[in-house]
Amino acid sequence: MARSKEKDPKEIADWLHWLPKAELHLHLEGSITPATLVELSQRNDAVPLTYDQAANVYDYHDFPSFLMSFKAVTERLVKPVDYELITYNMVRDLALQGVRHAEAYLSIGILYRFARLDVDEVMEAAERGRRRAESEFGTSLLWIIDAVRHFGVEECRKTFLKAAELRKHMPSVVGIGIGGDEARGPAHEFREVYAEAKENGLHLTCHAGETTGAESVWSAINIGAERIGHALTAASDEDLMDVLARKQIPLELNVTSNLKTKSCASLLEHPVRRYFEEGLMVTLNSDDPPFFGANLLEEYILVQREFDFTPEQMREFAANSIEASFLKPERKLQLLGEVEQYGF
């Protein structure tokens, strides 16, 4: 990967900072920084965590241990009001990166599984945080209700039915998705519940091809996913690549996440450049920023620098992120106009 010699790296990084962009693959619970974790601990623990102790919670060495670290952080969410705090902090942090819109996964599936908190109270608190942050920072936020695939189809159905119920009085709830262990919850098992969710007016996303093969991405397409999270292993199947390019199914790529979880062995092996050059609809995302050490701005800077994308190509990533969003057409047009008018 050759480096561009035409533009100073700092100049490009500064330009990327305020390039209008959207974050489409971000887990609310995974956005909790060590500083926010300390704040939660001060609220809820008899002996609050120090910053260093909080930072150590994020240590892991592979995908299963990452899931355990993620669990350890989410266990600090013990009151509905905690969700107001983390939502507000997430939107604040996004705005500081030049993010104009975000669509965040909120794991109701975990709330149901462990029965720690009332889902309605959690959503009301998260909505308070969303409204307050949107008003203060101007970055819009929509919710994708996340189920955990390895908890089984029926638990996912319960989560998706709740999402449909919430949507009736919370227009910010726009879609559903499944995360968790792909191997223990193959996408094809969720065909029926995805069809039900679509009938209930929800958009469909699906994590696929992160830790299993290209067949997982095929399954996500076959159950109606409108956007696919990760899609890392699609690169191994030429027919699948052709379908993704032809249908322009948006891919929520997470380069740093894939490296940190060892889903991708090295940066040189990541298919982001190939996907872009072969005409797939690629978006860049951060997934769980404090766990992986890269927020969305840092992801844009990394991808531009290491794969030598031009500023105009980076503008295309930003435009893709807005086009692939579940925003209403008028808001999309507004943000696409901002991207087009943002000069270098």
From TrEMBL:
InterPro entries: A_deaminase_dom, Ado/ade_deaminase, Metal_Hydrolase. GO terms for molecular function: hydrolase activity. Keywords: Hydrolase, Metal-binding, Zinc. It is an enzyme of class 3 (hydrolase). Its cofactor is Zn(2+). The keyword Iron-sulfur does not apply. The keyword Metal-binding applies. Its EC number is 3.5.4.4. Residues 20-341 form the Adenosine deaminase domain. Belongs to the metallo-dependent hydrolases superfamily. Adenosine and AMP deaminases family. This is Adenosine deaminase. It comes from Granulicella cerasi.
